[in-house]
Amino acid sequence: MIEEAAIRRYAGENRVDIAVARQEVILTILLNRIFLHPHLRDAVALKGGTALRKLIFGSTGRFSEDMDFATLGDDNDSIQTELIALLVNDEAAEMDGVRVLEFDFEQSMQGTVQAICEFRSERGEGHFELDITGGDGRRPLFTTIWQRPLHQTYFRQLGFDPAPIRRVETVEMIAEKVVSIHRRFENGNPKDIWDLWKWIQLPTAQVDVDLVRRLWPVRLWLDGQRWRGPGWFNRVEEFGFDWGRLRAMMPQGRIDGRVIVNELRNRFSAWIDRDEHGLLMDAGVGRLRATAMKQLESVREAIAH
Fold this sequence. Notes:
This protein is an alpha+beta fold and 305 residues long. The protein has helices at 4-14, 18-35, 48-57, 76-87, 90-96, 170-184, 191-200, 205-223, 243-247, 257-268, 279-282, 289-304; strands at 44-47, 66-71, 98-107, 113-121, 124-133, 145-147, 165-167. It has 12 helices and 7 strands. A 5-stranded mixed beta sheet has the order 1-2-5-4-3. A hairpin with a 5-residue loop joins strand 3 (98-107) and strand 4 (113-121). Helix 6 packs antiparallel against helix 7 and helix 8 (205-223) runs antiparallel to helix 12 (289-304). The longest helix is centred in the C-terminal third of the chain and has 19 residues, at 205-223. The radius of gyration is 19 Å and the shape is globular.
């Protein structure tokens, strides 16, 4: 297993606590376990903050505290069970040096499993959050993508080359971020806000932002959430977030919440409430299925081209 000195050196390079660096390494090892598995590699796709850091933002992305997956097959329950079984498998732990113990578990009526998992290794202990989304209406909307993790300096010390990871399409992950901000911006966690801001700095975002604009009402509608109404994004205020919580997860620790929120407001407010097909008004009601599917197909065709 990777030496403690390598993890400490990585923490020093990024000016983060050793526990944050250790968790980064442990998640890489566990993702390698999952995507080398002969069945699960084709049954789940990574999404969310960890996918963005490891596959889109790289070393400039925020460190992550969790692993979010979407199941791809029809038998959602068995895939979720198999994934958890692999994580807690003692033989797998003997192979890669990370033992996982599930100690808090919940399954929602919508088919999502959420768990807090404790890990133990020769390099220390910690915990991470696990979220496995699946079932009707929660499978990825677009073709998933195979990609190798973006290079990190500790890769040379792992003793293996990290396997390619199957991930959700970037536009879909960003649309989900907008929906997450809409749903829970009062909870004080700024990670979704920061991810959205980080994404708009990428050159590819200049092209894809229109696809996000068209997709986010569909995602809100599919999730069955009520729309907050016109101007909701303008009510997102920087003082409502615990930026200190995020700063601990940032390479070099630098962050300015006021700049982030103001820039997002300038970039998104002009179109965030645009309800061209009535899907925002219908969100949570569910009458306009044909309209939602037509809008989704238009985005799918744009991505394909």
